[in-house]
Structures are given as C-alpha cells and as structure tokens.
Amino acid sequence: MTEVNLTQDFVNLKEGDFVSRIATFRLDYSFTPFVALANYVQYDTDSRNLGWQSRLRWILRPGNEIWVVFNHSWEKSVLDRFETAETDFRVKLSYTFRI
Asked: Smallest Cα–Cα separation from 4: which of 29, 23, 21?
C-alpha cells in the first residue's frame, strides 16, 4: 500500500492566526502473510520537523510476534538544512501463553 497525503489547517486564535501544513508518505509491503514492513514519513511546516518510522513485523505463530521499530527525526536548522534530532531503535517480542 502506498499513500500520499497533504493536510492544511487554518487556525484562528486570539494569540494569532497561522496555517499548519502536514505532508505524509506511507509505504507498506508484505513479503509474506507473516512478514511485513511499514514505512511512514511526515513533515510539518509549523515545527519544520521531518520524521521517519519503519516497522518490521514478523508473526512467528498467531499470537507470537517480533517487532523491529526504527524512528528517526530531523529538524530544519537556521541554515535551512535538516540536522538529526533523534534516532530510536526498538525490538519488541509479543508472546501468548495458552493453557
């Protein structure tokens, strides 16, 4: 599955008005019914941040899964370049005990 989306919100507050734009791109791919990769990229004009999340899901058996998740974000600097803000890598094991 592939998805591209642009959201624009006009916000009126007593402190001031502004326009918020969020651009997203999503790309999901299933290698098999048990192994899938999902990617999500998002940029918003208000915070000037770019973020990417990639998730690998492996179903060992129904109820038993391994998730590998990678998150990375960039911030736009005063020099108008993207610089790394944060990187995160996690592994999650979900196991169902059946009695």
From this structure: 23
d(CA 28, CA 92): 19
Tens of pLDDT, residues 9-33: 998 999 999 888 999 999 999 999 9
83: which strand partners?
A: 75
Q: Quote the pTM value.
A: 0.78
Within 13 A of 33's CA, how many CA atoms are on the CB side?
2
- For residues 28-51, one letter each, b for 16 or more C-beta atoms within 10 angstroms of the residue's C-beta and e for the rest, the string is eeeeeeeeeebebbbbeeeeebbb
What is the spatial distance between Cα 57 and Cα 78, in angstroms, rounded to a whole number?
A: 37
Residue 48 sits at the vertex; the CA angle it makes with 43 and 53, to the nearest 5 degrees, is: 35
DSSP per-residue string spanning 2-27: EEEEEEEEEEEETTEEEEEEEEEEEE
The tokens describing 61, both together, are 């058996």
